[in-house]
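Bench log, entry 3. Co-assembly request; chain sequences pasted below exactly as received.
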Amino acid sequence: MTILNLLVLVSLTYVVFLFAVAFAADRAARQGRGGWLRSPMVYTLSLSIYCTAWTFYGAVGFAARSGLEFVTIYLGPTLVIIGWWGIVRRMVRIGRAQRITSIADMLSSRYGKSNQLAVFVTLIAVIGTTPYIALQLQSVTLSINAFAQPDPTQSRTIIDKDVTALMIAGGLALFTILFGTRNLDVNERHHGVVMAIAVEAVVKLFALLAVGVFVVWGLGAGPVDMIARIDASKLAEFEVPGSRWIALTMLSGAAFLCLPRMFQVLVVENQDEDHLRTAAWAFPVYLMLMSLFVVPIAVMGLQVLPRTANPDLFVLTLPLTAGQDGLAILSFLGGFSSATSMVIVASIALSTMVSNHIVMPIWLRATGGTATMSGDVRNVALLARRLSIAAIVLLGYLYFRLSGGGSALAAIGLIAFVGVAQFLPALLGGLIWRGATRTGAMTGLGLGFVLWLYSLFLPSFGPSAILPQSVLDSGLMGLSWLRPYALFGTEGMDRVVHAVLWSLSLNTLGFVVVSLLSFPSPVERLQGAQFVNIFDHAPTLGQWGGGMGQSEDLLVMAQRIMGSDEARTLFSRAARVQGLAGYLPEPTPEFVELLERELSGSVGAATAHAMISQIMGGANVSVQDLLAVADETAQIMEYSSQLEEKSAEQARTARQLREANAKLTQISLQKDAFLSQVSHELRTPMTSIRAFSEILRDSGTLSGEDQAKYSGIIHDEAKRLTRLLDDLLDLSVLESGQVELHTSAARLGDLLDRAVAATGGPESGMTIRRDRPAEDVTLTTDQDRLAQVFINLIANARKYCDAQAPELSVRVQSQDGRVAIDFVDNGSGVPRDHQTVIFEKFSRVGQTKAGGAGLGLAICREIMSRLGGEIAYVPGMGGAAFRVIVPEALNPAGRAA
Amino acid sequence: MSAPKDPLFVERRTYRRRRMADAVRLLPFLGAGLLLIPILWIGAPEGRGIGTATAMLYVFGVWIGLAGLALACSLRLRPDPPAADPEDPDHPDDPDAAAAPVRTRAP
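Structure output for the full assembly:
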């Protein structure tokens, strides 16, 4: 019994040591000192929780029963981690970007933040993990029991297994609650736990290597002798069934990614993506060392120990029977470490899932949990997590008691692997295939889960325990193709291989087919794009549209989850970024996104999303999100619409240019015509002036009558020249804006009378119709300039009207302080192609002999724009029609009103 | 407006890095192939089969070899100083991408 006492003493010291390590690491991390805590080696060692007591003790038993086959359990993870660049790195990146808290959170987050899916995954994980925890408790009690007997190879029960297991379970729950629930934010690493696990990883490796070295060089005579012993043993022949070799390797690889505890250390506790680079080679080395001496120990145990000895305890009983008590205690510590680290991490992982996806949603619903409620959700969440830990460990203990700790438990390791491997299709599919949908994932998981339960888990309790013997023999309801070990008539297969084959293949099939046929929700599509394109996209969650959420409500809610200090810090930092003082930032989409990410680190994506949508009014998915989902399509469509717009714009511009060009060409032609006309006009009077002045100069014999006639001609021609030059001067003055306006009030009728009189009066062969009553309008404007316009228009009508009985009607309309005066004649009007240019300088309609310089209308236009009015040609009035619009009062500044 | 085209030719170092990442991705397939070989030994005629000891040496040899290759690749995949390796859609996996400027989403 003394060795048992020593064992208890050493174990207690070891536990105290672990508590101290965890405590020191936690404190160092909190004080910002623990740089070494973040080393890649610590990360790699923490991955070693893959090696549980089942592998520490069980691997040797496994090897003693079926030779080298045990190695597949380690080869799978090796193959997965050496290809880290593909899948593992993607998972870690997503885990960090989306603040993933567990494998259930990962799947729920990928498939539209669906809590339903998370609950389902959590249930499978709990069902798969509880027996596994029981297995750890069993291995520890068995190993203590081995120390308690006089002859360790006997498996007679001496200690009270139940009490021992209960004490261990209690201690583990205490440790996990102390160090695993320090902070709510799972994404804030559990430095204490990780450090303790790393220490335990070293201890178990060292212990197993020590036993191995003792076996090979202590009991045996070195490697050569060992190989000879292997060749001589019953394990000499390599007879692993090929199907099991492949299936177990695949299975362990899948379990490495899907086991909740592995996901916890691999993704959630990951500090730095770059640590994977070290783990990629260091973890395979660790696994290799763990399995290096397994076969030698098994062979030696088979040779040295009696036939009745339990091969699962060879690691312990070999040193014990050889009298190496120290080594035996070391070996016990190795197994103890393996068991405890597994239970700790598994219960942290499971409790996170249970509290985030089951307890919290129920609690929030039960209490109407909205942001307006008072109270600290944080304490509730922490309490939920602590209770979950206790409950999970207790569940493991109950399972251990109910199963009686028999050999049924030993098989549970592989069975649990098959259970969690059901996550693989949904997990991998979600990472690499955007088309994977929630319905598909649910279908696949459901199918796989049911098949696993039916073909492996339930029968594992033994015949008639849960499934009656009749079902095992002749299938459910007597249908022979539904026999649990021979589904669809596949008889004679290994049970595990059979279950892996059917559950995983139907799981994958269901997942893919239903995904292909179903249609995802917008959030799903958005998350799908974010997961699959994690390396392309900035890590953003769904955009929160609109500013309906109130910052204050958000703050109240965040305080209840994150704690008031953290929440205030977060809010004030965000406010500062937005350039605001105080604690309340604007609820911009960016800020709400950030907040959701922070919250999901504490309560999981689904709950965080639900809580935020309560405040943000459920405006979950904005058009922007949908655009982001259809990212490429959106870009292409936008690109093409921009192209279309551009080409339309170019077409418009081209049309305008063509018009402008036509106008220019026409004006240029007109100008050429005008120039020749002007030179002609100038030349004609100049020629006659020169000729007649020469006659006057040279011949002194002219009669007075001739002299007067010639001088009259010279005078007339000079007047014509002056008029032309006056017009040009007038126009240039008007255009340069230097004209001075003399504003005064006048009746419109008087102005028109003046203009008619100035153009030759009513007796000039043209009838002028007027509307006297309408003309009784008083205008405050520059009378002379306006009269000039009227004179020009009436003179033009006289000149150009080609009707037999020329007639001009002047119509007046007043509206809104503006007076429109129409001058309509009954001639043929201005040809259409000239209508656009008649107001240009130097333009004249046709090569008429009427002889103006083509400046009249241009001057009119300038005058009207100075008077704040306008002049336009009105087509379709039966003849040439000009409309003059003039304001009743010109404003004092002399500018257009 | 259109997504920036990735250069067809990249700097030699970047090129090496990407090929190393390819190598890491392919490593599991090499490992799986090598570890499938022991299956071929099963069912050999009596006395001429390969024993557990030999198979063990083979498996552990492959194991060490794989770890060694993983180590070699890991050393060559050391993170570059930021912005040395631009993102590319084929190999959009650059450990520095997180530090690189965030690419905005479609407006």
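Strands of chain A lie at 482-483, 486-487, 743-747, 767-770, 778-782, 807-815, 818-825, 870-873, 881-887. The radius of gyration of chain A is 50 Å.
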